[in-house]
Amino acid sequence: MAELTVTKLDNRTVLALTGKGVWTFLQNLITNDMKGVSETMGVYAALLTAQGKFLHDFFVLKSGDAYLLETASERVDDLIRRLTLYKLRADVSIAKTERRVFALFGADAIRAAGLDAAPGASREEAETIFFVDPRETSLGVRIIAEGAFRPEAVFPDAMVSDASAYETHRLSLGIPEGGRDIQPEKNFLLEANFEELNGVSFSKGCYVGQELTARTKYRGTIKKRLMRIEYDGDLAAGDRITLEGREVGEVRSFDKGQGMALIRLDALQGEAAALEPAGIRIQEPDYLDLSQSPA
Length: 295
Prior knowledge:
By secondary structure, the protein is of the alpha+beta class. It folds into 2 domains: 5-172, Gyrase A, domain 2 (2-Layer Sandwich), CATH 3.30.1360; 189-283, Beta Barrel (Elongation Factor Tu (Ef-tu), domain 3). It has helices at 22-27, 76-87, 109-112, 151-154, 163-172, 210-219; strands at 5-8, 12-18, 43-48, 54-63, 66-72, 93-96, 100-105, 122-125, 128-132, 141-145, 159-161, 224-230, 240-243, 246-255, 258-264, 275-276, 281-283. The two termini are 34 Å apart.
């Protein structure tokens, strides 16, 4: 396992939602069940279009009277706009915060943060929230901090690195990121492995886009998946992957020989040697089991 590492994620922003109507507002809107959110547990979730297409993903935490949404900075204004359209006259206020986001990963990260090894397990101390990544515990711990939080003081045994180290870690586990690997208004939720990454509830009842998401699951109509790829050359987002001249995939992100691509499942039945670019390798992430998936 990699050395214990902490890095600041400057590409993440934290929203605070307050008001008497927040819980119900989010419960009727997002893909996961708000019953799973408390002072000791957070969840991963998404906002969809009415047609079940992905729009935004985020983590939901509770801090005092507020619910916090940690999400991608580059698209946070669009998320605020869409949330505002839905809230109508509900007693809900939405505001950006100055809280900073860090990731702690590598050897014994969960233990070092004083957390139970359960997806989403969280605790708050001195205006800082520590929580196990709800998607996959091997991703480590996320930290939402305000004030004078200094990671090197809290975790003296951790190596302080830039965000590229976390990107390498994320890609090595085949975890997709919303806005890059999961494209807004293009991808369906289950193509992005949201069920396996604990981001969707099939028992909570209605939410925006719920009908198509449920239909996709129960009819077994998933034809594509976001998968890990490895390649010894250079690739860029948007590059095509072909099998015997037929397009079977599209690169979504790539860095240091590994990345994510949206792959047709029937391509997994073909000969790997016939894939182009020559030498590219499609890897099923450890958290997936596609042995029973329809081709």
